Amino acid sequence: MNITIKQLQGGECSVEVTPTTKILDIKQHIATKLRIPIEEQKLLLLGRALIDNQTVESYPSIKNGTKLNLVVKKPDGLLEVATKCFKKNGMSEAEARARASLLIKVVEEKFSKLSWDDIERLSLDCMLDECAQMQPVQEQDNDTECEDVFGL
To answer: What is the topology classification, in CATH, of domain 2-72?
Structure first.
């Protein structure tokens, strides 16, 4: 059967499913088609969130032609991600938050010292990584101030 995923901010895609298709598999398909990471997706049917490990058949309302709403959750910021990482490595909440704040200060300080050319190259690298393309290695200018900009 064919269902439609309708993103509240505008995107839409169709997904072919069977009764045994898991909701997580649908999210994987959405990630591929709409380029929205699974962890940022929340699928809704009649206003209720669908559970990842459930199958399509566990939701009797899902039939051929059903439209599911997709809510894109805001991803965690650098502070939250860094705090979680530090906590996972054995730090207390207060210690992890302090280290994460220090990390942000270091990144901001290093970033503020970059030239516009450096920022442009970094942005291009990020875009190319996102598109799974390799940027050709180019010779560096001799006047580059710092080879390892974020040497943390």
So the answer is: Ubiquitin-like (UB roll) (3.10.20)
